[in-house]
Amino acid sequence: MTRKGAFIVIEGLDGSGKTTQAKLLAAKLKKSHGAVYTAEPSRGKIGKFIRNHILYGEERPPTSVEALLFAADRIDHVQTEVAPALERGQLVVSDRYLYSSLAYQGSAGLGLQWIEALNQHALKPDLALFIDVDPETVLGRLRRKKSVMETLETQRSVRQVYLHYVAKGDLTRIDGNKPKKAVAEQVLSAVTAFLGTRS
Length: 199
Ligand code: TYD
Hints:
This protein is an alpha/beta fold. The protein has helices at 18-28, 30-33, 45-55, 63-87, 98-107, 112-118, 135-142, 152-168, 180-198; strands at 6-12, 36-39, 91-95, 127-132, 172-175. Helix 3 packs antiparallel against helix 4, helix 5 packs across helix 8 (152-168) and helix 7 (135-142) packs across helix 8 (152-168). The protein binds thymidine-5'-diphosphate (TYD).
């Protein structure tokens, strides 16, 4: 196991396969790097509140309130799950993190600077990957399991925010339109390249 932990974030639209990819990555790096899978909204109290009362409800609170809740959940998630694992020298793979707030609450009309300011004390990821899948493809996959956030227009504008952070160099784009195995290979090679720069 490596002595130094690493915090890796996997982002993408709902239905992009990011959960599958994050779990595969954590499984692949379990033995060598003590990798663990985690996700936002988290398993903690605030994360559960978000899942039970916010995400699939008929009446959504103002976007600013949602952003505050996600930011609070993030601090809780880092304190209870991410930081302790990193301190043990483990590699942490988080399925969604800060860029989900920027992409989803940002595309819902909240200023990106406002969201960045709210999250300024959240731990910076060492590497953040964006699994990029065409919004049309994603919507087809989601037809059966649809949350309030999932219309084609929403998916497109969420993707645009993610691409903004790809252009800034904060997110690394992975072509998610390929078969699962090919996407997994790209994810693994991006992570391996990153880990190589640190050793
Ligand atoms: P998702 O990864 O789809 O969880 P699951 O597959 O378990 O339902 O995340 C749920 C939703 O939460 C997703 O539509 C994006 C949204 N979300 C935000 O809007 N902002 C955030 O900061 C986070 C972490 C998630």
